[in-house]
Amino acid sequence: MSTNNYKRTDSIEFTKKVSRKIKGWYSNDTFHDKAVNRIALQREEIISLFEKVEKVSVKKLLRYLDSSGFFYRPSAPNRHHNFPGGLAEHSLGVFRIVEEWNNMSPEERRNSELYNFKLSDKHVLCNIFTEKMNYDDMVIAAICHDLCKAKHYYFEGRIIKKHHSDYLGSRHASISVERLEANGIKGEKCEELLLAVLKHMRLYSKSYTNKERENQIRGKASMLTIAVWAADKLDASRHPAGKLHKQF
Question: By three-state DSSP, how is residue 50 classified?
Fold first, then answer.
């Protein structure tokens, strides 16, 4: 049974903080208020998902999500989900795709959007039609695959700025792993989910031939690693830069 019940910040205090942080992004108060409400709902959904985790304590990680601004940050300045709350929305989107895949029958997987989008050539890596994933691993890996961005971007009116110009780059995924380990997600029982986060940008080394790529990851790529990688790409494609949120 999970012991990860999390003491929430007062909801009014949280919404006031978010309202200050994204001030000036939207052209009118109606859009602004809708965004604040959407961010608060996403935060509650993510916390509720984490509270069901059993294999490891996530209380320290949840405190980090709150203190780092994870819930109201954008995913990027000029790429997908580049709006207030975009990072959390993308993270939830990845989780939902992975969870949906996990609940599918082999036939449903073969006919799914995810399979046709990114997985039709991944049969050599694992049994993608039948392999199941652990709930705890899915939640942590999917929600936190871009954890490195939590303190990276901030708003100045309609402009998204970076706190550190060279903060991410090629170390994007490894920084997310470091943040997870620093907040208690570490050890042998977390190895698979940490590998999924580490590999979410690229399953293979660019310099390898196709056969070398297959050999490089065979035996190391679990369904979780492949699903998070593919779901990240699929969810990003649904929300290209500049696309207004569906509510607006």
Answer: helix
Distance between CA atoms of 96 and 86, rounded to whole angstroms?
A: 15
Largest Cα–Cα distance of the chain, in whole Å? Answer: 55
Find out whether 162 and 77 touch, Cβ atoms under 8 Å.
Answer: yes
Alpha-carbon torsion angle 9, 15, 20, 26, nearest 10? 150
Count CB atoms within 10 A of the CB of residue 128.
22
Instruction: Report the SS3 class of residue 160.
Output: strand
126 Cβ contact partners less than 8 Å away, ≥ 6 residues apart: 221, 222, 223, 226
Q: Could you give the CA distance from residue 238 to residue 201 in angstroms, rounded to a whole number?
A: 17
State how far the Cα of 120 lies from the Cα of 185, in Å rounded to an integer: 32
Instruction: Return the closest-CA partner of residue 22 out of 68, 69, 64.
Output: 69
pLDDT of residue 124: 59
Average pLDDT across each block of 10 residues of the chain; the chain has 248 residues. List them in order.
71 86 84 91 95 95 93 80 89 97 95 88 75 96 92 70 59 86 94 90 56 49 89 88 52
| Distance (Å) of CA 146 to CA 23, 26, 58, 87, 132 | 24, 25, 17, 8, 23
Query: What 3-state DSSP class applies to 209?
Result: coil
End-to-end CA distance of the chain: 40
pTM for this one? 0.86
Give, for 41, the enclosing helix (H) or strand (E).
Answer: helix 29-50
Give the pair of three-digit tokens for residue 20.
């200050």
Of 122, 88, 151, the closest CA to residue 214 belongs to: 122
CA atoms within 13 Å, Cβ hemisphere of 127: 6
Residues 68 and 238: their CA atoms lie apart, in Å, by 26
